[in-house]
Amino acid sequence: MHCQNHFSIAIVLIISITILFYSTLTRAFGEPEYGYKEKSAKGPKHWGDLKKEWAACKGEMQSPIDLSSDRVSVIPNLGKLNRSYKPQHATISNRGHDIAVSWEADAGSIDINGTQYFLQTTHWHWPSEHTINGRRYDLELHMVHVSPQPDGINKTTVVGVLYKFGSPDPFLSKLGKYIMDIPDEEEEKSIGIIDPSKILKMGGSMYYRYMGSLTAPPCTEGVIWTINKKIRTVSRGQVKLLKNSVLKYYAKRNARPVQILNQREIELYDPKTKNIPHY
Fold first, then answer.
1. Transcription regulation as a keyword (predicted)?
2. Whose CA, among 48, 146, 196, 212, lies 20 to 30 Å from 160?
């Protein structure tokens, strides 16, 4: 009888610890406001109905899209991508649905049509969100830039890079040790000085350009997208590390399905083309 009492106490103690563990985990990470599972009530098809602030997710200028050759206009006068980045202190964080690197101060900017957009964050999606002629790649990096406006409604532009499996990505290689020790959701960890110019190094000069939106709620439209045409490489281990570092209900994929183009123009800058734009 005495042994049974000890056994019962032990069982109760284990159950209590388990409940406390999962309760703490729930408080730490919280229930996701939206998800990527197609058949889920919080999946991409329902984002625009989950909150009134997310109504733009049902808009007609949504991202990502398929960069189809038969819809692309070659525009030589778009000009070379004018960027000016500089090393700056940065932090890394687990945002639940992705891993993000944020710069604490001015890390430089990109110039589009005379407007300066300052680099804010970089994050990753797996597999890629944008596709080229229907092909989805293994990873996509987004560099989010913001241009402050007097009316408080800031302008946003995003530079995207697509990756296929192959040699390790040098930028992710530098971040590997920090990703392995990623903090809990909503906590940031300093990773020292990071040079964002290394991200696009050897990235090629050709790029796609179109008007779209943020690819996650609130899906704000009016975002200028610049997608590097050159496909970079990333190792399977690096993608696995990113997956394993976020919450399990997001780990398998965090890519929004391709959206309808709705007669939007897709432009391609090719410095070798001197002809009049064609379709």
1. no
2. 48
Residue-wise pLDDT for 132-191, tens only, equals 999 999 999 999 999 998 887 889 999 999 999 999 999 999 999 999 888 666 678 999
Q: Which residue has the higher pLDDT, 197 or 248?
A: 197
Secondary structure (3-state) at 64: coil
Q: According to DSSP H, which parts of the chain are helical?
A: 2-29, 47-50, 170-180, 236-245, 248-251
Of 2, 6, 89, 97, the active-site residue reads: 97
Question: Is residue 97 annotated as part of the catalytic site, yes or no?
Answer: yes
Which domains can be identified in the chain, with CATH numbers? 55-269 (3.10.200.10)
| Predicted TM-score of the model (pTM) | 0.85
DSSP conformation letters of 191-232: EEEE-GGGTSTT--S-EEEEEEE-SSTT--EEEEEEEESS-E
